[in-house]
Design a protein that fits this description.
- Helix content is 48%, strand content 13%.
- The protein is of the alpha/beta class and 495 residues long.
- It has 2 domains: 226 residues, P-loop containing nucleotide triphosphate hydrolases (Rossmann fold, 3-Layer(aba) Sandwich), CATH 3.40.50; 236 residues, P-loop containing nucleotide triphosphate hydrolases (Rossmann fold), CATH 3.40.50.
- Strands 2-3-1-4-5 form a 5-stranded parallel β-sheet, sandwiched between helices.
- Helix 1 packs parallel to helix 9, helix 5 packs antiparallel against helix 6 and helix 11 crosses helix 19.
- The longest helix has 25 residues.
- 34% of the residues are buried.
Length: 495
């Protein structure tokens, strides 16, 4: 496929032995440093024609590296479990922690190439997929994952000869062999060549460039891939984690312009009487139950996100939703500070892996929006981190929607006066006192900074496929009905 840019190279046996000793020593030193520092993870994506020796390269790297901190991530046709999740879920799930190296076979480039080669996707669909790949790899780069992309090139005739030598008379392989493309000839081969060249051209970026390695000579191939991995390890070890910038509240503005507030424009004085509430609550819960137990829902899923001011009533609203659901088909995730395992991966990882199966419901009490709310206001990440998070979040929610998962997001808003009243009521009740923490009181002093963050969040992430619903929550009954109404409306609209 890459005859013009992947010239054949060869190493004789003695050259290879001498080179491999040096490579192995340096690889082990660099791998040990990576594991000690735990600042970066490495993903080595090994692609190429069947017969190019992808499996042999993996085996060689296992010989040369410490396999305690090495893992193979291999993907073929989706399993039944994977078909019930977003397409990207299996890659999200397997992402190695910082300090580890993942060797990837059949990675996220394979499906677009196959679709284009088979004629299932036109140029526009293929181009859109490549743009999404670039954004995903940019996000991994920003989150401390070094992506090394290798295409092992060997001409098709040589590849087929290699495969034929490995086949028994009955077609079985004499030893395990990585077969990803199957029969490649005629128009399919032409389309695959063109698509592969376009993919390498359009997804070779400064932070995740492609390296095309000649695989005509096996010894050269193995040494070249190992050297690419070594270079990535050395670069990763040389990079220092950037210090977080001061929180936005501490950054002075040159001009204090008046700023519109979506949240402040809500009419928080609205109320619902008890009788109306009881009647509407029962009807909405009945309808929600019908929608989520219908046969058609087995081909869909729901993610519901609850954000809001402290004491805005998220828990009470969630309980009214939960009461209408089959307990076997839903999960409520109360999101707190990330664990050590989660901190070792991109911030979205703990949410990626919670994406529900089709036919199921995932409710988030706090969510991935913590990156652009509490982490922003408290200075727990840099401005660059939370600014790029808007695009990453939009991409994530688009992926969920594409997988037939409805995303319904709520911001429950209360006034500062109502919040104070609820705080004081919680303090006075032993059974509710546990809900109030020193952080809650401290956050009240940062109300303007949080309001600014909320308004920007809504402005940047209220998309057509995942819009925000602003809920007037000074009256709890009104808030609970509005939440149920919106979920029912979305499920009915999606049919």
């Amino acid at each position: 496929m890459f005859d013009s840019i992947a010239l054949p190279h060869r190493l004789d046996k003695d050259e290879f032995v001498a080179l491999s000793e040096k490579l192995r020593e340096k690889l082990l030193d660099a791998q040990f440093e990576l594991q000690e520092r735990k600042q970066k993870a490495i993903l080595l994506l090994i692609n190429g024609s069947d017969g190019a020796g992808k499996g042999e390269v993996v085996n060689r790297l296992y010989d040369w590296l410490d396999d305690h901190f090495l893992e193979t991530l291999s993907y073929g046709e989706p399993t039944e479990e994977e078909r019930l999740r977003p397409l990207e879920w299996r890659y999200w799930r397997d992402l190695p922690a910082k300090g580890r190296i993942g060797l990837v076979l059949g990675g996220w480039h394979h499906r677009p190439l196959s679709k284009r080669a088979d004629g299932d996707w036109d140029r526009d669909a293929f181009g859109t997929a490549l743009e999404e790949i670039n954004r995903a790899e940019e996000m991994l780069h920003q989150e401390g994952v070094v992506v090394v992309k290798v295409w092992l090139h060997v001409n098709e005739e040589a590849a087929q000869r290699r495969l034929q030598k490995l086949r028994e008379a009955d077609g079985a392989m004499r030893r395990p062999t990585v077969i990803e493309w199957g029969e490649v000839s005629g128009k399919r081969l032409t389309r695959l060549r063109e698509a592969a060249l376009e993919l390498v051209e359009k997804t070779s970026t400064g932070h995740a460039p492609w390296a095309v390695v000649s695989a005509e000579d096996k010894r050269y191939r193995d040494a070249a891939v190992a050297e690419l991995l070594l270079q990535a390890l050395e670069r990763a070890n040389a990079q220092q984690t950037a210090a977080a910038e001061p929180p936005p509240a501490a950054v002075a503005r040159s001009v204090d312009l008046p700023r519109a507030s979506l949240v402040s424009s809500l009419d928080l004085s609205q109320q619902v009487d008890r009788e109306t509430y009881a009647e509407r609550l029962e009807a909405l819960q009945r309808r929600l139950s019908e929608l989520t137990t219908a046969k058609s829902f087995s081909r869909r899923a729901l993610v519901s996100v609850f954000e809001g001011n402290d004491a805005a009533g998220k828990g009470g609203a969630i309980r009214r939703v939960r009461a209408a659901l089959d307990p076997r088909r839903f999960r409520v995730d109360g999101i707190a500070a990330p664990s050590d395992e989660e901190l070792a991966r991109p911030y979205l990882w703990r949410f990626w892996r919670r994406a529900p199966r089709l036919g199921h419901i995932e409710i988030f009490d706090r969510s991935w929006y913590g990156r652009v709310l509490v982490e922003r206001v408290e200075g727990l990440c840099s401005r660059d981190d939370w600014m790029r998070a808007y695009t990453e979040i939009n991409d994530f929610e688009r992926q969920l929607t594409r997988a037939r998962i409805a995303v319904v997001k709520f911001w429950l808003a209360i006034s500062p006066e109502e919040q104070l009243r609820r705080f004081e009521a919680r303090e006075a009740q032993p059974t509710k006192r546990y809900k109030l923490t020193p952080d809650d009181w401290r956050n009240r002093d940062k109300w303007p900074a949080y309001e600014e963050a909320v308004n920007e969040m809504i402005d940047r992430t209220s998309s057509r496929h995942a819009p925000w619903t602003l809920v007037e929550a000074d009256d709890k009954r009104l808030a609970r009905l509005k939440v149920l109404e919106r979920i029912v409306e979305r499920l009915e609209a999606d049919g």
